[in-house]
């Protein structure tokens, strides 16, 4: 039978589509039950412990096969039915295609884009962070099941403490507080990996997707005045390591049970992180019980030889990292030099086996060696679970609850939905949804700009970009002033974008780029009423000029608020949502840049004028402080009850040299004592205003005496409550003295000092006396 040509073509097309479709829907997996040659291997037997299965698989590999597996793009081992695997995928604030593992090239062509982490942190809501993690883990598994993922290991969260306001990657982090950062890490990791909010052991260690705490450790400088992260040797004191740089990683590993760690580019006190046996093996695996794989940052092994000169040869670098406990190299260095390192007897093959044991264990925990994963746990998650209404609402909720109201003179906000007849939006990001998403993002489910979202409220909304670009090298003041004069209200949308702050690019100053400030001043002067300023930026900007300018009525900080950020901003501006976000980092004045970014010290040194860093130690003037954030309503606090106001620690065995400096170390007190000595503090919070709101309550501890490098104050708990107008709630905080009343001494030991302490919430204080 002769087929009509057109029919033939369409049949062929149909077949091709089917073929492509079948291929792309098959996720890569090992131990195919329909393949008699591979299914009988012990490493395929899911009834055996994973450690045994991984050992069996490693024992079957030749040295060449082993070496090939030590890099992020791991090839297939066809004779064993093992497919290729890509270790590098990203999911900082939504599944992204920034690594090599994820492709949005099939039925799934985008993922929910949550706000950049710094804004999500501003919600101070750990359960929200967990739900975001869950949504990301689910969408990741859907991408894998659909055959669009070559791996399920995601290199997030970024939990380095945001130490210096210039850091280009501060936007990726949960801010400057170690407790907040640690809690964020725990919540995100548990969500992504498929654990419950409260934690507890995952079923057989089984992972929905794998999360990775990065960058271990003391990494928070990218490129500043000729110093870059590849060459930087961070000088960090034991004290700062113990109570600032390390705690988020300890939380991520111990409570989050993260299955991955990334070692950072930089050196710490001379030793490259990825070559640091003490850090990777003694501390992470030994002391903290880490179980998972350790990857290098990309090309972080080559630099140990090429940039840092720490290793004399490439083989020495390879031997250093594999002996230290690193398992996989992002890059190709280990593929090129591991065999020669073994042949030159610089590295025992057992070190390679040790690494592979960790690598294959994680792949097995992901269910990739259990036959067709579509038939396994998480196998039924499909494209319909990506960009769901629920996930998109969660992105909106996070943006809404993160956005911080910094100024609201004469209650300019919210604007009336009925009486506002026209709005002018002015600024380079007013009609640009791309900037809202931030870095390490995939294509979002949808994009709505602030201009579009405002039009939903006020039909007569005008827009002018004001500047040529965010750098604002040229400005069109007459045009901007023209629409400002014609409008009832003006919204100026200014700040930064990835051209100003990003990976590999720290800022040189803390001010608005180019001529933005003169645009703002001119528009504010010309407008009929005080203007609203929306600030997009990850790191803080010194906007003192706007803070004190009466023509600027309101200021909102929106970080990079993600795919729903435009809608969230419009809802806040027009009173459909009451802002409740609080700043997760200190906003420093512009002269802070006289402090070298390379100086890692957290504590101030008055004799040299070094001001210290973050709310815990910084002694200078602030533009806005950590925890600051206004609302359309008013909240008041009271201490309702505190179960004890005196804590007896018993006689010190390691009393300090002077009588006034008595302390006990946390380890000598012991966890049992601290459990028994836990203080329960109940705080009442009352919404005295006329509007419902979600409000994070932040509890700090401060010591009366500011000596020995004590923090000025320290956040010890936070809890977000939703209150109707006039409603009151009580929030309970459990304070374990070992965790919450301790600080690091100069030797990096956590100690509790005797003397007078205060619990602080808002302006309320409650005294607690510690007696030794
Ligand atoms: C490894 O070898 C390949 C092939 O010779 C080369 O292209 C690549 O640059 C090498 N990688 C490194 C990090 O030296
Ligand atoms: C300003 O930004 C524009 C657009 O991104 C770019 O083309 C231009 O080179 C930038 N100018 C400067 C001085 O950085």
TrEMBL record:
GO terms for biological process: arabinan catabolic process; xylan catabolic process. One of its GO terms (cellular component) is plant-type cell wall. Gene3D superfamilies: Glycoside hydrolase family 3 C-terminal domain, Glycoside hydrolase, family 3, N-terminal domain, Immunoglobulins. The lineage of its organism: Eukaryota, Viridiplantae, Streptophyta, Embryophyta, Tracheophyta. Belongs to the glycosyl hydrolase 3 family. Residues 1-22 form the signal peptide. It is found in: Secreted. Keywords: Glycoprotein, Glycosidase, Hydrolase, Secreted, Signal. GO terms for molecular function: alpha-L-arabinofuranosidase activity; xylan 1,4-beta-xylosidase activity. This is Fibronectin type III-like domain-containing protein. Residues 695-765 form the Fibronectin type III-like domain. It comes from the Eukaryota.
């Amino acid at each position: 039978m002769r087929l009509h040509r057109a029919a033939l073509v369409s049949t062929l097309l149909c077949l091709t589509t089917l073929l492509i479709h079948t291929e792309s829907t098959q996720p890569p997996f090992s131990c195919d039950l329909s393949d008699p040659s591979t299914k009988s291997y012990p490493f395929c037997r899911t009834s055996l412990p994973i450690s045994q299965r991984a050992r069996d698989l490693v024992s079957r590999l030749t040295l060449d096969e082993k070496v090939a597996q030590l890099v992020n793009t791991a090839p297939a081992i066809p004779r064993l039915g093992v497919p290729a695997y890509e270790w590098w995928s990203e999911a900082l604030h939504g599944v992204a295609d920034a690594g090599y593992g994820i492709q949005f090239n099939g039925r799934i062509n985008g993922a929910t884009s949550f706000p950049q982490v710094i804004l999500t942190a501003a919600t101070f809501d750990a359960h929200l962070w967990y739900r975001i993690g869950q949504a990301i883990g689910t969408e990741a598994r859907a991408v894998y099941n659909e055959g669009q993922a070559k791996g399920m290991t995601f290199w997030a969260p970024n939990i380095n403490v945001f130490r210096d306001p210039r850091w280009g990657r501060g936007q990726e982090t949960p801010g400057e507080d170690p407790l907040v950062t640690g809690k964020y890490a725990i919540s995100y990791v548990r969500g992504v990996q498929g654990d419950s909010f409260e934690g507890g052991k995952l079923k057989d260690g089984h992972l929905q997707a794998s999360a990775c705490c990065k960058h271990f450790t003391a990494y928070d400088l990218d490129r500043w005045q000729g110093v870059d992260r590849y060459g930087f040797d961070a000088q960090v004191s034991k004290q700062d390591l113990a109570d600032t740089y390390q705690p988020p990683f300890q939380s991520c590993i111990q409570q989050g049970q993260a299955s991955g760690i990334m070692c950072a580019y930089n050196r710490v006190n001379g030793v490259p992180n990825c070559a640091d046996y003490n850090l990777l093996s003694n501390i992470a695996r030994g002391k903290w019980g880490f179980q998972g794989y350790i990857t290098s940052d990309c090309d972080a092994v080559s630099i140990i030889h090429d940039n840092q000169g720490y290793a004399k040869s490439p083989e020495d670098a390879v031997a250093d990292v594999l002996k230290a406990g690193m398992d996989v190299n992002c890059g190709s260095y280990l593929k090129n030099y591991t065999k020669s390192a073994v042949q030159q007897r610089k590295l025992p093959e057992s070190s390679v086996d040790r690494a592979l044991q960790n690598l294959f264990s994680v792949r097995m925990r992901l269910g990739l060696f259990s036959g067709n994963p579509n038939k396994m746990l998480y196998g039924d998650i499909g494209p319909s679970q990506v960009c769901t209404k629920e996930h998109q609402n969660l992105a909106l909720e996070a943006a809404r609850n993160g956005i911080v109201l910094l100024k609201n003179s004469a209650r300019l906000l919210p604007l009336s939905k009925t009486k506002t007849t026209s709005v002018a939006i002015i600024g380079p990001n007013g009609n640009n949804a791309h900037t809202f998403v931030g870095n390490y993002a995939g294509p979002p489910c949808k994009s709505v700009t602030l201009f579009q979202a405002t039009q939903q409220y006020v039909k007569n909304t005008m827009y002018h970009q004001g500047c040529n670009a965010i750098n604002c090298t040229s400005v069109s003041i007459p045009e901007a002033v023209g629409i400002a004069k014609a409008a009832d209200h003006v919204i100026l949308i200014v700040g930064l974008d990835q051209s100003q702050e990003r990976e590999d690019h720290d800022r040189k100053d803390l001010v608005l780029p180019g001529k933005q400030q003169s645009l703002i001043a001119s528009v504010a002067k010309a407008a009929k009423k005080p203007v609203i300023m929306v600030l997009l930026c990850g790191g803080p900007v010194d906007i003192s000029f706007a803070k004190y300018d009466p023509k600027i009525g309101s200021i909102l900080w929106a970080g990079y608020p993600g795919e729903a950020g435009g809608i969230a901003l419009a809802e806040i501006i027009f009173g459909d949502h009451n802002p409740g976000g609080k700043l997760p980092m200190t906003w420093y004045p512009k002269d802070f840049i006289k402090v070298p970014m390379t100086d890692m010290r957290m504590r101030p040194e008055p004799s040299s004028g070094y001001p210290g860093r973050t709310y815990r130690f910084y002694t200078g003037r602030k533009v806005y402080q950590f925890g600051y954030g206004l609302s359309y309503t008013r909240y008041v606090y009271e201490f309702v009850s505190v179960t004890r106001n005196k804590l007896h620690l018993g006689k010190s065995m390691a009393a300090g040299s002077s009588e006034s400096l008595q302390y006990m170390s946390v380890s000598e007190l012991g966890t049992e004592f601290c459990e028994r000595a836990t203080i329960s503090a109940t705080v009442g919070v009352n919404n005295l205003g006329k509007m419902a709101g979600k409000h994070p309550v932040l509890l700090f501890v401060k010591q009366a005496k500011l000596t020995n490098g004590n923090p000025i104050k320290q956040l010890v708990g936070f809890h977000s409550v939703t209150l109707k107008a006039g409603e009151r709630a009580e929030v309970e905080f459990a304070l374990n003295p070992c965790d919450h009343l301790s600080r690091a001494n100069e030797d990096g030991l956590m100690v509790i000092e005797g003397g007078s302490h205060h619990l602080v919430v808002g302006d309320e204080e409650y005294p607690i006396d510690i007696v030794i």
